[in-house]
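Researcher: Batch entry, complex prediction.
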Amino acid sequence: MAQLYDRVALIGLGLIAGSLFYAMKRAGLAGVVVGYARSAETRDVAREIGLCDRVVDSAAEAVEGADLVILCVPVGAMGAVAAEIAPHLKQGALVSDVGSTKGAVIEAVAPHLPEGVHFIPAHPLAGTEQSGPRSGFAELFDNRWCLLTPLEGTDPEVLERYKELWRQMGSNVDEMDAPHHDLVLAVTSHTPHLIAYTMVGVADDLGRVTDSEVVQYSAAGFRDFTRIAASDPTMWRDVFLANKDATLEILGRFTEELFALQRAIRTGDGEQLHDYFTRTRAIRRGIIEAGQDTDAPNFGRNAK
Ligand SMILES: NC(=O)C1=CN([C@@H]2O[C@H](COP(=O)(O)OP(=O)(O)OC[C@H]3O[C@@H](n4cnc5c(N)ncnc54)[C@H](O)[C@@H]3O)[C@@H](O)[C@H]2O)C=CC1
Ligand SMILES: O=C(O)C(=O)Cc1ccc(O)cc1
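Model: Structure tokens for the complex:
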């Protein structure tokens, strides 16, 4: 496969940066990939396991001469990293990020970037509850969406080349504006994570439910909650602080619906509960019929 960028810099060496490195190497998309992470311990691990062709000790050195720079740090750290690298970026370089929120990242990063440097924010809808330099793998982006939120006036050739990178790493690529992205993700990812955190916290608070009972008798739904609630605390703290407005909007709607269901249970309104669950069941079936749940055990078999 054709090389798309001669020199790539990855800032932050965790799950996403690691997966980017292996996915780029798998398809021969990058010449040299240089990495940097803030902690010396992470850089040592990266060197030990061969994560990146070269690991350097400053962000400035990592971006020197890079054609593509991808910021792979928690969203709350994006602005500071952009300020640090800005004076060292090559003219014509493309800066991108993989942050889970887009509006706040654009606001934090764009003002630091000099004239003549391109900026295309990205968000791969692919991840796990794992983090750190040992957690990345080449297949992470296969058959997953990558959402780009290009700013007005983005150079179409620079955009097309970057889209091609994601496609060659296995992703399907789509574009949307940042406010829309942040609202969609508040519904599909951020609020569900908060609900999982809360449910696991509630189980933990219940004195009568011992740890071993929680583990032994976990049904699939609760098991998924515990997996999600094991996600990186720094990353998720930053997501909620950065996507405050959209998350609060969706949480408001969520609690209204929850109270309505709570009332239906209290008053014994079985019809309301049944109607609600019938509606939500149809949504799940729609997702599977559209072939959009690649994790479903019966994916591709037109399951009902
Ligand atoms: N984990 C997931 O499932 C997904 C995460 N994302 C986004 O990708 C980004 C990275 O997430 P992960 O790779 O999961 O995190 P991670 O925790 O595995 O890695 C983050 C890396 O950034 C480094 N770092 C933190 N602050 C830094 C700073 N100021 N300067 C330089 N390095 C710094 C850490 O040392 C670590 O190496 C986040 O913005 C997250 O919102 C996007 C899609 C999925
Ligand atoms: O592990 C899971 O279930 C996820 O939801 C992964 C994930 C986490 C954050 C993102 O911005 C995108 C994907």
